[in-house]
Amino acid sequence: MSTQNDNISLFDAKAVDRNRQRGRSMGPDFDFLRAEIADRILDRLADINRDFTNTLDIGGNFAPHSTGGTIQTVGMGDEPLPVDAGTFDLVVSNLALHWVNDLPGLMVQANRALKPDGLFMAALFGGDTLHELGHSLLAAEAELTGGANQRVIPFADVRDLGSLLQRAGFALPVTDMDTITVTYEHPLKLMQELRGMGEVNAMHARSRTFLRRDVLMRACEIYQTKFGMADGRIPATFQIMYMTGWHPHANQQKPLKPGSGKVNLADALKAGGPPEKPSE
After folding, report:
1. End-to-end CA distance of the chain, in Å?
2. Going edge to edge, which strands form the sheet with 114-125?
3. N or C, fewer C-beta in 10 Å, the chain?
4. How far is it, in rounded angstroms, from Cα 197 to Cα 11?
5. Looking at domain 13-271, which CATH architecture does it have?
6. Cα dist. 158→18, 61, 106 in Å?
7. CA distance 91 to 113
């Protein structure tokens, strides 16, 4: 994912779509992580004193897990976004934006699609995601072939996201992060899971040859030796980064002056909504 507006096309959009279609054909058993993060997004939205009735889902990973309001879905290859300005009161994305070539440009478009005081909320994979797998594959390939290809895509750093929200024109930008560790019986089980999720390498610069079997087996050995747990299972890290920002509106809380403190997550989420009703 590119966090710079440099017109570099890092990902092959057709390959991204092809991988996702292939993953869907493997059945619903591999969607647990998207379902979990969709639930966490819904929990965050529930903390806001507002009903979102018109939602844009970028990537299509949120709508299957939501039951409220009207949701329009756009695919990851839909750049620019095929929507009118000022249409939605919520733009959301669930574990999809890490495949976007021009993330700054897409965020500007997301802001444009919002009504005044509309909310943008996204969750995406961060830089430490699958670091165990990436290390093991690189080490095995370098050891057995004398060279190595990047088999796990690069992910954004959480430190970049706040400035991206500001550059896109969002008010009250907030970023935070979760780390989820999933354990597997064997590295091959993890790789099967990633194929079922459609989360396999789709970079333009990816190797077009299959990973040699001896390299794959050596990568599994390295993974289990370096990262294996006492019970024989292996961990896989998924770093989840969250972005929240509001389309500017005159009635919003004003940002604090530099040096006067920070806006916390709860206050920022409530800032765009109407006053809370008093307790009865």
Report:
1. 48
2. 70-74, 54-58, 88-94, 114-125, 234-246, 171-184
3. C
4. 17
5. 3-Layer(aba) Sandwich (3.40)
6. 28, 21, 17
7. 8
The span from the CA of 25 to the CA of 90, in Å, is: 30
Instruction: Locate 262 and state its tokens.
Output: 């920070």
The per-residue b/e assignment along 81-116, b for 16 or more CB within 10 angstroms, e otherwise, is bebeeeebbbbbbbbbbbbbbbbbbbbbbbbbbbee
Measured N-to-C along each axis, helices 213-227 and 187-197 cross at an angle, to the nearest 10 degrees, of 110
Backbone angles phi, psi at 137, to 5 degrees: -65, -45
Place of tokens 């919002």: 114
Q: Which two tokens stand for residue 259?
A: 């040096």
- Decide: pTM greater than 0.70: yes
CA distance 241 to 225: 29
Q: What is the DSSP letter of 74?
A: E
